Automatic annotation (TrEMBL), chain A:
Residues covered by the ABC transporter domain: 4-240
InterPro entries, per database record: AAA+_ATPase, ABC_transporter-like_ATP-bd, ABC_transporter-like_CS, BCAA_Transport_ATP-bd_LivF, P-loop_NTPase
One Gene Ontology biological process: L-amino acid transport
Organism: Nonomuraea cavernae
Name of the featured protein: ABC transporter ATP-binding protein
SUPFAM superfamilies per UniProt: P-loop containing nucleoside triphosphate hydrolases (SSF52540)
An example Gene Ontology molecular-function term: ATP hydrolysis activity
From TrEMBL, chain B:
Annotated TM spans: 12-38, 58-82, 94-116, 136-158, 188-210, 216-233, 240-260, 266-285
UniProt-listed GO biological process terms: amino acid transport
Name the UniProt record assigns to this protein: Branched-chain amino acid ABC transporter permease
Recorded family membership: Belongs to the binding-protein-dependent transport system permease family. LivHM subfamily.
Keyword Transmembrane helix assigned: yes
Length: 242, 293
């Protein structure tokens, strides 16, 4: 069963149209990778899903139609977006950043206990964050901030997790570690994930299916294996021939 | 020595009032990046409301509570109706809007209550506390206590409540705040409401010391600007410290620097503003804006 169904999605900024009718669906608990060159509209696609840009078309998450809703409403529907640039609340502490992720969850005593438990769980995924809880988030390294951003997103207990270029600006070793954790999270929490990534090799490593976006249109779709085997993709994004 | 301490305490009393209006300025600046030139006039209007309520026979503290509630709602309403339409417009546009608001509120107060001065009841008893030759009037003490209380409440709100955390999130990264589900528009309105409430406190505190009239906050606003500039426009703590320093500096300069006296001491905040902008533009507690080349 599909968790996310996007149909004929158009989006843009002012007069500049960026997405021209994107359709895709992602199965419950699956990871979907969006590949493509710079300027293809990958980030805009994620921003359209989380309501950060004006859109036309439909975005169904379970029974809810998200298209045209405001970002805070979409977040309340269980969509967590780790934006390009990580969206860190720099002067706030690491713990405050994480707790903000749970901002829309109810404030009852039981719910608060659950939030505390989730905080512990996230320390399990990212032990480094636990040692820096009282530190200003802006003092973290790039890799740590990316972990914080993913941790913050998980605090929502999302039904859909949107990851925008998690590898951006990170050392290769850190990036590999990060993708390993994302895979673990996906396996343990059954969270549906849409990940936009320049590093196609890593993204295809954790995804079940993938789409290649070029100038605002999907030009190729398939399972991760099919996309990896595609000669054109291999040349353009993987840097080697099959 | 006693004379000096006497001046110091008096300066702190004045400074506490500047601090509360500076705090209102900083609250709005933090959330919206807007310097609200109308902040003093809003405080003045609130003070007239308090006067109207007491004139209608309401006990002072009840009138105050009602005034603060109305100011809060009024601040939110102004954000929704006047500021919202120019959100994201160039800075100059927003500045002009707040200056327009200044003129409008000032004129409206004059139209409703006339420009004749009115006596505003002093909520604190007359007389003074005397200790070791030092006389501290109950009025000064009362001002310090009330402003201290306001600071304490704001601190609790920002540091220990969910709404406060959300407000700080919006102040630091509005886009990211939207993504975690915070209703940013309402949070900004909330910030304006809070600022109007804090400003109202400063108006009600200053009115018994001056007279109630539509232009009474003009001078106080300049001191508050000096305080916020000195402390750093993005730092609530800075606003308070800045306010106290400005109050003390003004009082001491008036008392001890011969050629300044009580006539020229209004020049003190302007000297402070100029000095801070030249030497440390981000203020004592503010963060310097750093941009990569």
């Amino acid at each position: 069963m599909s968790a996310l169904v996007v149909t004929d999605l158009h989006a843009g900024y002012g007069d500049a149209r960026v997405l021209h009718g994107v359709s895709l669906s992602v199965g419950e608990g699956e990871v979907c990778a969006i590949l493509g060159p710079n300027g293809a509209g990958k980030t805009t696609l994620l921003r359209a899903l989380s309501g950060m840009v004006r859109t036309r078309g439909t975005v169904r998450l379970g029974d809810a139609d998200l298209a045209g809703r405001s970002p805070d409403t979409i977040a309340r529907q269980g969509v967590a977006h780790v934006p390009e640039g990580r969206g860190t609340f720099m002067p706030l502490t690491v713990e405050e950043n994480l707790r903000l992720g749970a901002y829309v969850r109810p404030a009852s005593r039981r719910a608060r206990a659950e939030v505390d438990a989730d905080l512990e769980r996230i320390h399990g995924y990212f032990p480094v964050l636990k040692t820096r809880l009282r530190q200003a988030a802006g003092s973290l390294s790039g890799g740590e901030q990316q972990m914080l951003a993913i941790g913050r997103a998980l605090m929502l207990r999302p039904r859909l997790l949107l990851l925008d270029e998690p590898s951006l600006g990170l050392a290769p070793l850190v990036t590999r570690e990060l993708f390993r954790i994302v895979r673990t999270i996906n396996e343990q929490e059954r969270t549906t994930v849409v990940v936009v990534e320049q590093n196609a090799h890593l993204a295809l490593g954790i995804a079940q299916q993938a789409h290649v976006l070029e100038t605002g249109r999907i030009v190729l779709s398939g399972t991760a294996e099919q996309i990896r085997a595609d000669e054109q993709v291999a040349q353009s994004y993987l840097g080697y021939r099959v | 020595m006693t004379g000096f301490l006497q001046q110091l305490v008096q300066g702190l009393g004045a400074g506490a009032i500047y601090a509360s209006l500076a705090l209102a300025l900083v609250l709005i600046y933090q959330f919206t990046g807007i310097v609200n030139f109308a902040q003093g006039e809003l405080a003045m209007f609130s003070t007239y409301l308090a006067w109207q309520f007491t004139a209608a026979g309401m006990p002072f503290w009840l009138a105050l509570a009602l005034t603060l509630a109305v100011s809060f709602a009024g601040g939110m309403l102004i954000e929704r109706l006047v500021i919202r339409p120019v959100e994201g417009a160039p800075e100059l546009t927003v500045v002009i809007v707040t200056v327009g608001l200044f003129i409008f509120v000032n004129a409206a107060a004059g139209w409703i209550w006339t420009f004749l001065i009115k006596d505003f009841p002093n909520p604190f008893p007359g007389g003074a506390l005397e200790a070791g030759g030092l006389r501290v009037s109950y009025s000064t003490l009362g001002v310090l206590v009330v402003v201290g209380l306001v600071m304490g409440l704001l601190y609790l709100l920002f540091q220990h409540t969910r709404i406060g955390l959300g407000m700080r999130a919006v102040a630091t990264n509005p886009d990211s705040a939207r993504l975690v589900g915070i209703r940013v528009g309402w949070t900004l309105a909330l910030g304006w409401g809070l600022a109007a409430t804090v400003g109202a406190v400063s108006g009600v505190l200053v009115a018994p010391l001056l007279f109630l009239e539509p232009n009474m906050m003009g001078g106080v606003l300049i001191y508050a600007f000096a305080a916020a500039t000195l402390g750093g426009f993005d730092s609530p703590v800075g606003a308070v410290v800045g306010g106290l320093i400005v109050g003390v500096a003004e009082t001491l300069a008036g008392a001890y620097v011969g050629f300044i006296g009580s006539d020229l001491k209004v020049g003190v905040p302007l000297v402070i503003i100029l000095g801070v902008l030249l030497l440390r533009p981000q203020g004592l507690f503010g963060r310097a804006a750093v941009e990569r080349a």
